[in-house]
């Protein structure tokens, strides 16, 4: 089994910092904290009923948000994905995924902060091709800014990328948080 560099303590600390800013979401994250207390390795994509992922909300110079067309789902999503052994923090994982999927180099991307703007828990459908049952992603989403444009896409996972208006973010809580941080 591969040991990830992101630790349970780091995930717990990140959740605590997030809840300090958004205490009204404690009930939603109690289950994730419980899994950590039980010793579940949330850094492994094999951990069920769910595991941690990291996402990037990239704001361009005109205030639009970068979305990718994900090959597996055929949906427009924010860049992000599973943790890798080289990731030291959830923020670093989000930045790595952003760079991999969009071709935008890390040196032209600035994180808004160390604490996620949003933590989203969502269901992932079973994927028989990858021998994965249905499970949950505990998605730690970080806000980034850039003046760069889209680079070479990671075509194994992404078929298109586009800058979209803030109101095209489907999740109303995330849309509100991004709008508040851009003011």
From TrEMBL:
InterPro entries the UniProt entry points to: NUDIX_hydrolase-like_dom_sf (IPR015797), NUDIX_hydrolase_dom (IPR000086)
Pfam families: NUDIX
Domain Nudix hydrolase: 49-183
TM region positions: none
Family membership: Belongs to the Nudix hydrolase family.
Protein name stated in the entry: NUDIX domain-containing protein
The species this protein was found in: Streptomyces kasugaensis
């Amino acid at each position: 089994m591969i040991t990830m560099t992101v630790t349970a303590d780091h995930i717990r600390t990140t959740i605590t910092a997030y809840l300090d800013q958004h205490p009204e979401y404690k009930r939603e994250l109690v289950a994730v904290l419980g899994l950590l207390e039980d010793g579940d390795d949330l850094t492994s994509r094999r951990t069920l009923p769910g595991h941690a992922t990291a996402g990037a909300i990239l704001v361009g110079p005109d205030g639009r948000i970068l979305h990718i067309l994900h090959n597996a789902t055929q949906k427009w999503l924010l860049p992000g994905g599973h943790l890798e052994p080289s990731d030291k923090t959830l923020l670093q994982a989000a930045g790595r995924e952003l760079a991999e999927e969009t071709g935008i180099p890390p040196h032209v991307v600035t994180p808004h902060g160390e604490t996620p703007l949003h933590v989203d828990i969502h269901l992932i459908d079973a994927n028989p091709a990858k021998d994965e049952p249905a499970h949950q992603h505990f998605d730690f989403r970080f806000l980034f800014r850039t003046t760069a444009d889209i680079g070479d896409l990671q075509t194994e996972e992404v078929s298109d990328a586009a800058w979209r208006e803030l109101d095209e973010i489907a999740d109303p809580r995330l849309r509100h948080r991004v709008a508040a941080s851009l003011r």
